Amino acid sequence: MGHERVYPILPIAPNVAMRINILAAICSAAAAGMWFLITERVLVGWLRDRWQRIVGGSLAALIGATAFTVWAQSVVNEKVYTVSLLGLALVSWLTVRWCDEPYGFKADRLLVMIAYLSGLGFANHMAGFLALPAVAVAVPLRRPDTMIRWRLLLAIAGALALGMTPFLTQPLRAAHFPAINEGEPTGCATEIGVGCTLSKATFDRFMYNLNRSQYQKPGLTDRQAPFIAQVEMWWLYFRWQWLRDPFDNHPGIQQLLATLLLFLGGLGGYVHWKRDRKSFA
What we know:
Elements: H1 2-6, H2 16-43, H3 50-66, H4 68-75, H5 81-100, H6 105-124, H7 132-142, H8 150-163, H9 169-174, H10 194-197, H11 200-210, H12 227-240, H13 251-275, H14 277-280
């Protein structure tokens, strides 16, 4: 990804590690800003006073930014999650903007941009596609005829593919045999060339990396534990978010806080549905 190549050379910190950490903080801060904008826009339909919407948006940004996973990845970013979070938040905000005006050239451009950013996000991490199911629901609900506008659909598909083009750098870079060449997705043995780069061996090795076959994950339908154990793991991660408590010193408070936040989230969704079903959909 470009951020891994361009950002480290910017003169904003003494070394590369600090620059990457700053990138993590900037991305999560920008994502929190997106949560503010989304929440403020949603509240327009049922809170008349602007200060109330600002308070609501600020609370959403605060809760999102201080969740344990987000906070931890923002201060020590050894992976790609905060960049992925920003992409998810940005696509969500653009979808809300599109829902405000789903007709016209500007709306079409928003859909194309959503597709491009989703593809770009996927090239960074598979979580880049997380917002697409919501987009796929919003579009036919708000403007069903979009699904039969073949020129727009082609533009969306092209933008999605364009966003994923950073994947093309993998076999090209691997064929130069850098010091760190994990997976080595190239069929070239000694030097880069057109024939070996476009070979079946390159394709197979690239797909091996893309499908994460090196981790030997079982199929999605193969259960490794009872479903209730999976739910308990989800609940464990959720409980961590606003009171990590690694030594289990305050399990009651952690449980209470997580339950309260889950209840408030559900209550907020219900009130949203009752007061402004258009934006809820």
